[in-house]
Amino acid sequence: MQTPLAIDSAEKASKKALDSSMLSPRFYTTDFVAMDQLDVSSMRAEWDKMMAEYEGDNNHDHFQRDEQFAVEVAERFSQVSPEMRQEFLEFLISSLTSEFSGCILYNEIYKNVENPDIKQLMRYMARDESRHASFINQSLKDFGLGIDLGDLKRTKAYTYFKPKYIFYATYLSEKIGYARYITIFRHLEKNPDKRFHPIFRWFERWCNDEFRHGESFALIMRANPHLLRGGNVYWIRFFLLAVYATMYVRDHCRPMLHHEMGFESSAYDYEVFRITNEITKQVFPVSLDIDHPAFQQGLAHLYFVQTQMDMAKARGGLMGLLQRGRWALSGAITFVRLYFLPVKQQELSHPVRIVPAW
Q1: Mean pLDDT computed over 50-79
Q2: pLDDT score, position 7
């Protein structure tokens, strides 16, 4: 029997993409005037080399499905349980929304700035993210769940972020996206029997797009070092914790997805955190101590809080509302405690750019 929350129509898929909960990807806008004033001249040599890579576009023909794609969907994905199918569809919708969010943001910056360096970069990144979102949408269309991206752009709520918040959050999003995709790809490469859907075969070159996008923001921040010192370090700590905590809670809300691939959710998440911590040495002067027992206990409690919030929401009524308030407060207190845990100080890497070696 289908539950009321089952994603079984394009309308429900679109509604899921429009969700604006704490765990769902958001659409952003920013200060285009401030973006226009960015100066990357101190990183000119590395910047121009990166622009040449974008221009070379080594993924221009990557996002084309082969003949085997439909065969694998029919033979492998048809074997998963209905519950697992729902988790995978939620994963696709969340991933599409995240990729399309980047496409919209980068395209809007491109259209609203005159700075030739930033304009060129945003055009390339919008191109890449558009391909990613369209490729995921093709897989949703296989199930009759394709999302109207134009309508999503018009109707989903937007969040305003200052440019520096865009840099911190988007840099982390791109780098952790790389870490997630490459961890899945490497694991399924060794365990092909666990690859229940063919989209995972595209993850290696796809995630290298994500890596290069992160490199772009790393160069911007290193060219503007005031973004990485003083009071801004507190913002860096906030975004590190927010991104890690959101990923942890979201992943533990989809345990079957990882189990089907042969992962345990916590082990997978901490492997992704370790990779991301190593990468972010190129730009962030601090990293989270992910091995601290209080850190791990805190993330586990945030997941528990989310389960209680979901139960209270399902209960409804005044009692459900009061319980949601109680657990929201518990989650906020836990987040604050996590924020004030000791962090690791680190020297920034030289040169800035690094090779995706994981």
Answers
A1: 89
A2: 85
CB atoms within 10 A of CB 42: 13
- Adjacent-strand bridge partners of 345: 286
Q: At what angle do helices 293-315 and 232-252 cross, to 10 degrees?
A: 60
> What is the model's pLDDT at position 5?
57
User: Could you identify the residue written with the tokens 């990807």?
Assistant: 25
Q: Please state whether beta strands 158-160 and 286-288 pair in parallel, antiparallel, or not at all (unpaired).
A: unpaired
CA dihedral angle for residue 175, residue 179, residue 180, residue 183, rounded to 10 degrees: 170
Helix (H, G, I), strand (E, B) or coil at 223: helix
Nearest-angstrom CA–CA distance, 238 and 338 = 10
Q: What is the pLDDT of residue 4?
A: 41
Cα–Cα distance, 5 to 7 (Å, whole number) = 6
The secondary structure of 257-318 as a DSSP string is HHHHHT--HHHHHHHHHHHHHHHGGGT-SEEE-TT-HHHHHHHHHHHHHHHHHHHHHHH-HH
Q: How far is CA 74 from the centre of its chain?
A: 28
CA 37 to chain centre: 27
**Token reading at 353:** 């750019």
The answer to whether the predicted template modeling score (pTM) of the entire model surpasses 0.85 is: yes
Residue 312 in contact with residue 327, Cβ under 8 Å?
A: yes
Q: Could you give phi then psi for residue 274, rounded to 5 degrees?
A: -65, -45
* DSSP string for residues in 118-147: HHHHHHHHHHHHHHHHHHHHHHHHTTT---
Beta partners for residue 344, in sequence order: 287
**Residues in contact with 50: Cβ distance below 8 Å, sequence separation at least 6, in sequence order:** 212, 215, 216, 219, 353
Place of tokens 């690859």: 195
Pairing relationship of beta strands 27-29 and 158-160 according to DSSP bridges:
parallel
